[in-house]
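Try it yourself: sequence plus nicotinamide-adenine-dinucleotide, in.
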Amino acid sequence: VKIGTPKEVFEGENRVAMTPDSARQLQKLGYDCLIETGAGEKAGFSDALYEEAGVTVIKTPAALWKEADIVAKVRQPDGGELKRLREGQTLISFFNPAANEEGMEAAKKKGANVIAMEMVPRISRAQKMDALSSMANIAGYRAVIEAGNNFGRFFTGQVTAAGKVPPAKVLVVGAGVAGLAAIGTSTSLGAITYAFDVRPEVAEQVESMGAEFVFLDFEEEQQDGSATGGYASVSSPEFAAAQLAKFRELAPDIDIVITTALIPNREAPELWTKDMVESMKPGSVIVDLAAEKGGNCKLTVKDEKIVTDNGVTIIGYTDFPSRMATQASNLYATNIRHMMTDLTPEKDGQIVHNMEDDVIRGATVTYEKEITFPPPPPKVQ
Ligand code: NAD
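Structure, out:
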């Protein structure tokens, strides 16, 4: 049985779903590995490195999709790729099932079994396959690096012969996976780091990383913005107002803002308003990791970097993991390889698509010509 990875077709995508290392592991599971020529180039993996790892290099996408029984890729397939799907083939990829009717219908009609990486249930057993988390971790790190690259000063305070340098003040809004990675990066660079989240239970995590949790002047019991499964819910108007008031108070004093606040299946909440941007010092930087979902900052332009009239840089890039393609490919390929391990219980190169398994079931969005999305709620937590 052959598992193959095509070159990503999405403009500007640098990641690849199979690395020489992951291919070695996949071969131990009994699979033959295929890669389209040049697929790993932008992530730092040449054809020669794959060949050394026992991978067969295939010249065209058509041949790759035809030969591979299992296709592993990063981005949801585009129209051309959907046409290449075939009966009995397994596709493991991000697939955006909730907003990809064309893809769902195509996979169903063709009889391809699709495992959507964003649907991996977030339970402990599945953490090793949780590509949303591995990519969010990179985005959080890179957001701080990107901010630093656009900030004219040190993060850490210094007393030098040439003068005293104050430490940068960083505010991270939203302390989920990306936010916590940003906090860790910011504190390790020596910035004074503040963080806020509507889920007060993360305060302890934030503080354990050396940052200060921003509490609102709000009744304790009403502070709770947690909904089910560790995700946020929409804040009450009173809570949102208290949050904005606090941010307005902080804005003139903060050098770097990293926003990561998201609410499942909604546009990103608007938390950093125009007047807050206007009250920031020139040279300040905002990195808006919610740009894909409309942005947490009112002035964010998706996929762009802008500088406001008062000299604040606002970065709305949505491709941070791709900007660290080697690291991202290594982690993503490992997520895929763990998925394959669970799909190959006998390590004999035979895929067993066990729809009784909560994790496999949860991530499968089409199976044997049926749409199997959304999945039933998981039995175990
Ligand atoms: P996310 O990307 O959906 O949201 C990012 C953060 O924004 C969340 O922490 C959310 O509370 C916060 N937020 C929403 N509205 C806000 C507002 N108005 N102001 C400030 N912050 C706001 O979240 P995520 O990073 O995917 O993580 C969500 C949860 O899932 C977390 O509790 C995380 O620990 C948990 N998780 C569990 C596992 C696992 O058990 N395997 C894996 C990954 C994540």
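One thing you can check immediately is this: The chain is about 35% helix and 15% strand.
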